[in-house]
Amino acid sequence: MHNSALQACGLDYVYVPFDVAPEGLGAAVAGLKALGVAGFSVTIPHKTQIMQYLDEIDVSADAAGAVNTVKNERGRLVGYNTDGDGLVRSLADEFGFNVRGASIAIIGAGGAARGAIAALCRAGAGRIIIANRTHERASELASELALRFPDAALSVVSGFKELEECLTNMDMLVNTTSLGMNRDPLPFLRLARLPRTAMVYDMVYAPPVTPLLKEAAGLGLNVANGLGMLAAQGELAFAIWTGITPPFGLMKSVLDGSCDL
Ligand code: NAP
To answer: Which of 8, 39, 79, 136 is the most exposed place for a label (fewest CB within 10 A)?
Structure first.
């Protein structure tokens, strides 16, 4: 998707993948810096570990506790995180959803949840409720983010059953867990309590229709998978590296196969 956007914008860059083992991360970053690359993406399992090798951490990455985009600014490597803002942008693109003032239920408390919740707080969400299999992890995450975003109404429920009780007041439900990748349903969570106007977003995009999205669509709710977020985080990274916004929708259409590479 990056190479298609670079081509569409007439930019003389190329985006290539490197498979880096954890023990080689420091050397790989030093090598990229020495080579003078314009920037690079970072993905699992390096998103947190890479922070120690960078010269500066942008507020987006600091709040998310992870970096997914690095820009080389005249020899200084600056780490950003575009995942959370990618989610906010994807919610707007897919549903016309405005986060400001909205009530949002989050399932999960891992890395993806952290970036997402930080971005939702920055975007002015009215109320965020978090439920996670491991309750302590959700509590720690909420306490940490509450310190950074004292105006945000963040709360944690002790389990999926308790989350179900709160669904009647939610505008949006976002799954940030990996459940669904293996077509696993979300345990003990029935969506029938969501208002008819509520939307359901699953960060998982393979398979494109997870059991969660299937159930939500069956109830007549608006649904979307994480492909739009993947494209949107890429669009934001592209703009950080090049200073240019890629053509709207191009990256997503490359990802979903509706546009030829
Ligand atoms: P992570 O840090 O490992 O967190 C995993 C989360 O899933 C935790 O909340 C974990 O709960 C929960 N979980 C895993 N297995 C579970 C199960 N059997 N039952 C209940 N909960 C379970 O991973 P991550 O980086 O947050 O990524 C999570 C998902 O988001 C992945 O599928 C990833 O592909 C997706 N993602 C998508 C995008 C996108 O652009 N669309 C971007 C980032 C991530 P515990 O705390 O209890 O272990």
So the answer is: 136
Q: In percent, how much of the chain has pLDDT > 90? A: 90
pLDDT higher at 180 or 3: 3
Q: How far is CA 230 from the centre of its chain?
A: 7
Structure tokens at 62: 């600091």
pLDDT band of residue 190 (cuts 50, 70, 90) is confident
Q: Are 162 and 131 in contact (CB under 8 A)?
A: yes
**C-alpha of residue 24 to centroid of ligand 1, in Å:** 25
What is the reported pLDDT for 261? 54
* Region 183-208 average pLDDT: 90
**DSSP characters over 196-212:** TT-EEEES--SSSS-HH
The minimum-distance atom of ligand 1 relative to the CA of 44 is 25
Please confirm, yes or no, whether 252 is among the known catalytic residues: no
Planar angle of CA 114, 240, 232, nearest 5 degrees = 55
Rounded Cα distance, 3 and 11, in Å: 9
**pLDDT bucket at 117, cuts 50 / 70 / 90:** very high
Which residues are CB-neighbours of 211 under 8 A, at least 6 positions away? Answer: 180, 183, 184, 185, 186
* Sheet with strand 127-131: strands edge to edge: 154-156, 127-131, 103-107, 172-175, 199-202, 222-225
Residue 32 tokens read as 């990229």
In sequence order, the 6+-apart residues with CB closer than 8 A to the CB of 215 are: 185, 191
What are the structure tokens assigned to 138, written together?
Answer: 């959700």
Task: Name the pLDDT band for 150 (thresholds 50, 70, 90).
Answer: very high
